[in-house]
Amino acid sequence: MRNLLLLFALAAFTAVEANRFRQEFPGPYCAARKYDSCCRDRQDGCAQPISTTLCYCDEFCERGEHGDCCPDYEEVCLGIVAGPDNATSCVHKNHYFTPYDPVIVDNCNTCKCNLDGSVICTDDVCMVDEDLLRQLGHLHRSLGWSATNYTEWWGRKYDEGKVLRLGTFQPKHRVKAMKRLSNKGGSLPSRFDASEHWTGLIAEARDQGWCGSSWAFSTATMASDRFAILSKGREMVQLAPQQMLACVRRQRGCSGGHLDSAWQYVRKNGMVNEECYPYIAAQNVCKVHEDDTLITANCELPVKVNRTHLYKMGPAYSLNNETDIMTEIKDRGTVQALMRVYRDFFSYRGGIYRHSAAATPAEERSAYHSVRLIGWGEERVGYEVVKYWIAINSWGQWWGENGRFRILRGVNECEIESYVLAANPYVHEHVQTVRNVGELQELIVGTGYVPHPSRRYPPYGRG
Ligand SMILES: *[C@@H]1O[C@H](CO)[C@@H](O)[C@H](O)[C@H]1NC(C)=O
Ligand SMILES: *[C@@H]1O[C@H](CO)[C@@H](O)[C@H](O)[C@H]1NC(C)=O
Ligand SMILES: *[C@@H]1O[C@H](CO)[C@@H](O)[C@H](O)[C@H]1NC(C)=O
Ligand SMILES: *[C@@H]1O[C@H](CO)[C@@H](O)[C@H](O)[C@H]1NC(C)=O
């Protein structure tokens, strides 16, 4: 009954494999036999237990692929010693390899086996790793949100994630101090979700891909939302982030951009729609020019309104504080928020986000991003009422809560309340005036492209 079920095929091994085999099952086996270490011909009793079976030290064990010799048979019975060069084998996290094997990949790092048997790995911080996931798992309850291991992030360096998955620069002080708008208070509901209030008019999460273009996505999607809202669905347009990526000057394309320049561009130049300028997650040559119309830019014209002009927005203004932001969202639609991103945010799966101690590293470990705030709510957790914002990210709908996330509200978590922008669209003049939605909207809607809302809300910076 010897044989068919055998573990090993020593004879077929290369020297390297044989060496690995010996490392995995260090023996001794034949050498440990009491009377005769090695036996002639076939002797089924000339065996030693190994793992869950037996290995043999008789000559019969050498049968090509079906051999069942013990790991030390060659050395003990035949006197063959592996050459010193090829005797080297390294082990890294239970994985055996030699200096002759290709490097092995361990998450975002690679490891090589040195001739002296030591292993050297690159030492980059990965977007996610076992330690972070384990810590977030332990902290789950106290944090109020859960984490998951996204395949998309595994194997990527954190530096790569910070540049290519975010991409909004922190505003300069001068710009930060721009005109702020104070909304008249009034009672605010305890929860509000723009996508329920204006059903079908709020853009869901898109995926910026591996391109640091959140500055272009948050700007274009917020502008699109506001066109749809203010026109009551007549101007449902998906404005093209690609146009910004290609055309806004003094930005760094997929390496990031400033929100103020983005808004200045939308105000002065105007935007075309996605179909006319599809997103490719890379910078390309700008094909929309300042005096273009939708016709000269070769875009299809919308069917519901007689628009030929590009889609322009009035000047951006910033919101002061929590209640101002809430009033703005409720009265006029989604807003754009700058946000500081820590490493744990990438692994967010659901719940109310706050950055954790697991990811509170040095300053350079965080970077800025921009997202849309579309509403708010509150949730009772034990005796505590936790207030949150509802936000839409630009990492696709596979991330977070269908592309969205909730984050603590009222405590400037991740600086999310420190730089919140809004702007109003020049909807087409044929859209009917909406009487009961607030002064600013009447002003814009009632008069088409002019007068400029900047008469009420002075523009950003010097623009
Ligand atoms: C070591 O193994 C490699 C490939 O397995 C072989 O090309 C080389 O000649 C061997 N070197 C020695 C010293 O045996
Ligand atoms: C995370 O997922 C990747 C593949 O998607 C897998 O290779 C890796 O082992 C997982 N890591 C942990 C810690 O679960
Ligand atoms: C927000 O700012 C406005 C004025 O800009 C002020 O009336 C209001 O009380 C502030 N709200 C909070 C919560 O600080
Ligand atoms: C559409 O707009 C163009 C130019 O803006 C104008 O010449 C044309 O008469 C308009 N058509 C309709 C049906 O309003």
How are helices and strands ordered from N to C?
HEEHHEEEEEHEHHEEHHHHEHEEEEEEH
Instruction: Detail the poorly predicted runs.
Output: 3-12, 430-463
Q: Report Rg.
A: 32 Å
Hetero groups bound? Answer: 2-acetamido-2-deoxy-beta-D-glucopyranose
Integer count of domains: 3
Class from helix and strand fractions:
alpha+beta
Oligomer: single chain
At the fold tier of CATH, the topology name of the largest domain is: Cathepsin B, Chain A
Family: Belongs to the peptidase C1 family.
Signal peptide: 1-18
Keywords: Disulfide bond, Signal
Domain SMB: 34-82
Give your account of this protein's structure.
By secondary structure, the protein is of the alpha+beta class. The protein has 12 helices and 17 strands. It has helices spanning 15-24, 73-78, 84-87, 130-143, 158-164, 173-176, 194-197, 214-230, 241-247, 259-268, 322-332, 439-447; strands at 47-50, 53-56, 90-92, 95-97, 104-106, 109-113, 119-121, 145-147, 180-181, 192-193, 317-319, 335-341, 348-353, 367-381, 384-392, 404-408, 420-422. Residues 3-12 and 430-463 have low confidence and may be disordered. The termini are far apart. The protein folds into 3 domains: 3-78, no CATH class; 90-121, no CATH class; 131-422, Cysteine proteinases (Cathepsin B, Chain A), CATH 3.90.70. Strands 8, 9, 10, 11, 12, 13, 14, 15, 16 and 17 form a 10-stranded mixed beta sheet that branches. Strands 5-6-7 form a 3-stranded antiparallel beta sheet, with no helix packed on it. Strands 1-2 form a two-stranded antiparallel sheet. The structure holds 2-acetamido-2-deoxy-beta-D-glucopyranose (4 copies). Keywords: Disulfide bond, Signal. Belongs to the peptidase C1 family. It comes from Anopheles dirus. GO terms for molecular function: cysteine-type peptidase activity.
